[in-house]
Amino acid sequence: MYALIVGCGRLGSRLANQLSRAGHNVVVVDRVKEAFNLLSAEFSGFQVTGDASDQEVLKEAKIQEADLLAAVTDDDNVNLLIAQCARELYHVPKVLARVGDPLKGAIFQEMGLHILCPTTISADAFGAEILKQGE
Q1: Rounded to whole angstroms, what are the CA distances from 2 to 61, 77, 117?
Q2: Distance spanning both ends of the chain, measured CA to CA
Q3: What's the CATH number for 2-133?
Q4: Is 68:93 a contact under the CB 8 Å cutoff?
Q5: What's the alpha-carbon Rg for the chain, to the nearest Å?
Q6: What's the pTM value of the predicted model, to 2 decimals?
Q7: SS (H, E, C) the chain
Q8: Domain extents for the chain?
Q9: Which residue range or ranges hold the RCK N-terminal domain (predicted)?
């Protein structure tokens, strides 16, 4: 699988390392070159420094070949823009977007985007653990 990860913060770097270890072809895009320092020494993919909302940067990352795009920057609006672009313009088969604001997440889902909201996921996990402890 050819995976394109946009955003190389804690989440993006961890995801990129995981997919690389599993033997997938991975390209990570981030605006800040130093962000790539979060990638492990064993990371076997490629790095593209640039703004992924710029189509030239996406083309440099070979978005047209991607089987998966994960937009995991810390900016919900950037993730929405990139996810829509990947889906509508480049017809990437699987597109995931990180959304920090649960209210925006609901809107993005109504637009047909596959989103993951760390806030909701964490709250659900904490709630389940707390309720389990109370039994």
Answers
A1: 11, 24, 23
A2: 43
A3: 3.40.50.720
A4: yes
A5: 16
A6: 0.91
A7: CEEEEECCCHHHHHHHHHHHHCCCEEEEEECCHHHHHHCCCCCCCEEEECCCCCHHHHHHCCHHHCCEEEECCCCHHHHHHHHHHHHHCCCCCEEEEECCCHHHHHHHHHCCCEEECHHHHHHHHHHHHHHHHCC
A8: 2-133
A9: 1-120
Strands across the sheet containing 68-71:
46-49, 25-30, 2-6, 68-71, 94-98, 114-116
Structure tokens at 92: 């990437």
Residue with tokens 């390209």: 27
Phi, psi of 27 (to 5 degrees): -125, 135
